[in-house]
Amino acid sequence: MPVVETAIAAQIEAFMTKTTGANLTDESKKQIQGFASDLSKVIATAIRSATVTVAPGIPVATAGTPAAQTGATTAPGTGTLS
């Protein structure tokens, strides 16, 4: 699943709007939108900078000669972020 900054920003904006109340001025709404946009970029950058380590042993299917095989995993793997 891709990291979509606009989706993250929309969730932050909805949360902030919900917690601050319904009577927001236009200026307050713009500030919340700007904060949500900036924070979503920070979150997305942090996620994209993570190293994903996948344990060996994921089943694969291969094709081709022993010297030039191609293949793909045939089962899901579990990774860890660091």
Structural notes for this entry:
With 82 residues, the chain is α+β, with helices and mostly antiparallel strands. The protein has one domain. The chain is 48% helix and 17% strand. The protein has a two-stranded antiparallel ribbon. A two-stranded antiparallel ribbon has the order 2-3.
Summarize the structure.
The protein is an alpha+beta fold and 82 residues long. The longest helix is centred in the middle third of the chain and has 23 residues.
Strand coverage percent: 15-25%
Distance from N terminus to C terminus (CA atoms, Å) equals: 18 Å
Instruction: Round the mean pLDDT to the nearest integer and report it.
Output: 90
CA-based shape: rod-shaped
Rg for CA atoms: 21 Å
The number of helices is: 2
Structural class call reads alpha+beta
What is the helical fraction, as a range of percent?
A: 40-55%
Order of helices and strands: HHEEEE
| Domain module count | 1
Query: Strands of the biggest beta sheet: in what spatial order?
Result: 1-4
Task: List low-pLDDT spans.
Answer: none
Instruction: Please provide the count of β strands.
Output: 4
